[in-house]
Structure formats: structure tokens, C-alpha cells
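Translate structure to sequence.
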């Protein structure tokens, strides 16, 4: 694919400004930029969901008009957007082949539809999902894999992946990254958008940086460092944008403590302390227990274990609010500053 002078205007506002881009078969081209840099606008133009105000798009040397998603599919372009497009009340198989279901004697061939869905689900690592299951009954991570399977259903020549691992566990993410590499090695062109630099470093052959609706630069990925790319995305050095916070006083009171918090299998002996005036960040790849920590603090988990304020082990049902109730209506109320505990917790 060859893009030249692509512009998108919303009234007097130019959202995409004279973009040139080349995407080559057999290579993974990463698109990086801050929120609002123009990445999504570019992808929508290439997927046929947003008309360009100016510029041309060529596919295999021919100028094409991507006036709608059907036109993009006819050119071999498939896009897996960050916002899912699945229809909740249709089955997995129906969603995967919604655009072009297999037909027999003028009717949809349900048996062939299920077989093809099974093949694609296996390909994306979702063999546990039944093609007959309604999408509304699937957890978010499985819906994301169904969305990727849907993107592959048309056998595209250019696959656009927009934050496609954002809702996946680490295991599922690694499967999709390996699949993307395999597809590229088989000759598929991939345009890959992600905020996760570790994924970009693992996958990208080429890279384009966007800022304020314009393309800053395109280059072979290994020719730039991560710091170079961040500087191009932000227009300044990251240490100048994020100055170090002033140190907190050492005698600030403890507002919340977790001691030995355990909730198998997601949480294992978590110690955590939050002091007044402090911003505490909890990070990690998706599915590593961050969500469960917040649920524990909110009192929404049953069967937690840990240590009370004296260091004694407790194995009862624990809560941020009271040990025997898991009642969020009690709120993060005042009291003793540790979790778990049979009494209220000083957490606000």
C-alpha cells in the first residue's frame, strides 16, 4: 500500500495533515504516537470508514477509492479496531463471517460457517470458544480474540491491528504476537498500532511516528532507540515533560495497608501501603492481579486471607469493610489502617 498526501478535515480543523506512508508485504509496520496524534484517523481512512479530504491511496500500484468498508475488503484490507464491532445477540460464527457468510443454494451454509469459525478460533488461540455461543456470553478477552478472527476471515493482504492486545491476558497477547509474526513471514502486510513499547520492539520491522496529525518520520525500526521514538512522539525529552515529583515527608500517616493479602490464584501475599498525599501506581501486564487488588480494596472479593495489624495470620473471609459481610455500602470508612481486618479500615 502506498499513501500520498492524505488529509482529513473536520470543518476548519485538520485532523490529518499531508501524510505519506508505505506498507510493504511481509513486514510489520508500527504506527506510534500520543493520543490525538492522528493514528485512528489514518486507520479509519484505510479501512473505508472515513473519507479523506485530499490525497491518494494505492493498492498494488492502482489508485483506489476506499469509500466504505466493503471497498476496503475488496482491496484486501481488513481492520481490527480497538472499539469492537461484534453484534452481541449473534453467535460467534455469525459474527466472524458477518460480511461474507458461506452460501449453499442461495442460503447461508451454517455447517460451513461453523467449520470456518472453528479454524479461525484455533488460529487465534481461542479453541475453548464455541462457534455457537452468543457473543454477549463471552468475557472481554474472548470477544477480543473473536474480533481478531473476524479480521482474518476475509484472507486479507493488509491486516490493520489497532490496540488488539489491550484486553488480552499475557498468554493470549503472546499468541497473537507470534501469529502476527507468522502471518508477516507468510507475506501478509501488517499495520500495527499499540501503546506497548515491548510489543513494538518484539514485532516491528518498520515504524512511523505521528504527532499532532502529521507524520514526523518513517524508518526501519532497529535504526532508532526507544528514547528517540518517545522524543519524536512528544516533541521533547520525556524527562522534561515529566519532572520528578517532590519527595513526600517521611512522617505522613498511613491511610491504607495490605499485609499478606492472598486470594488464590490471582493474589499471593501482597504487601502494600498508601500514605496521605501519595499517588500509588499499580502496573503490570493485563491479567497479573492489578484488577483483583482493586476489587479487594473495594470489598468485592470473598475468601481473602492475610495478616491483621498484629501480624497474626487470618484465614477468614476478608473485606476492605468488614470480615464477615463484603458490604460495599459501608464505604471506605474510618477505623484501623490495615487489610484484612475484622473491623473498619481507615482508607479515606
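Result:
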Amino acid at each position: 500500500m502506498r499513501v500520498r498526501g492524505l488529509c482529513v478535515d473536520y470543518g476548519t480543523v485538520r485532523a490529518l495533515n499531508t501524510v505519506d506512508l508505505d506498507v510493504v508485504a511481509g513486514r510489520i509496520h508500527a504506527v506510534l504516537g500520543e493520543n490525538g496524534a492522528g493514528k485512528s484517523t489514518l486507520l479509519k481512512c484505510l479501512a473505508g470508514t472515513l473519507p479523506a479530504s485530499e490525497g491518494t491511496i494505492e493498492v498494488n500500484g492502482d489508485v483506489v477509492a476506499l469509500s466504505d468498508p466493503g471497498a476496503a475488503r475488496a482491496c484486501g484490507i481488513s481492520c481490527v479496531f480497538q472499539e469492537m464491532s461484534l453484534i452481541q445477540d449473534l453467535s460467534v460464527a455469525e459474527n466472524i463471517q458477518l460480511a461474507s457468510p458461506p452460501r449453499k443454494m442461495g442460503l447461508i451454509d451454517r455447517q460451513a460457517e461453523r467449520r470456518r469459525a472453528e479454524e479461525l478460533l484455533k488460529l487465534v488461540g481461542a479453541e475453548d470458544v464455541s462457534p455457537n455461543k452468543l457473543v454477549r456470553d463471552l468475557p472481554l478477552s474472548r470477544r477480543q480474540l473473536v474480533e481478531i478472527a473476524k479480521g482474518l476471515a476475509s484472507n486479507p493482504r493488509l491486516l490493520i491491528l489497532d490496540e488488539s492486545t489491550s484486553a488480552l491476558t499475557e498468554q493470549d497477547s503472546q499468541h497473537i504476537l507470534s501469529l502476527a509474526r507468522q502471518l508477516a513471514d507468510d507475506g501478509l502486510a501488517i499495520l500495527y498500532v499499540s501503546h506497548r513499547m515491548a510489543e513494538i520492539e518484539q514485532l516491528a520491522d518498520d515504524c512511523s511516528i505521528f504527532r499532532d496529525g502529521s507524520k514526523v518520520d518513517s524508518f526501519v525500526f532497529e535504526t532508532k532507540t526507544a528514547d528517540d521514538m518517545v522524543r519524536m512522539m512528544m516533541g521533547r525529552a520525556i524527562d522534561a515533560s515529566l519532572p520528578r515529583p517532590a519527595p513526600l515527608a517521611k512522617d505522613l500517616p498511613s491511610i491504607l495497608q495490605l499485609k499478606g493479602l492472598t486470594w488464590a490464584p490471582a493474589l499471593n501475599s501482597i504487601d502494600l501501603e498508601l500514605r496521605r498525599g501519595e499517588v500509588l501506581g499499580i502496573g503490570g501486564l493485563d491479567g497479573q492481579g492489578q484488577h483483583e487488588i482493586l476489587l479487594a480494596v473495594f470489598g468485592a472479593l470473598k475468601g481473602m486471607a492475610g495478616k491483621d495489624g498484629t501480624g497474626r495470620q487470618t484465614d477468614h473471609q476478608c473485606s476492605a469493610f468488614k470480615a464477615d459481610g463484603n458490604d460495599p455500602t459501608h464505604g471506605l470508612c474510618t477505623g484501623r489502617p490495615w487489610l484484612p481486618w475484622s473491623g473498619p479500615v481507615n482508607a479515606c
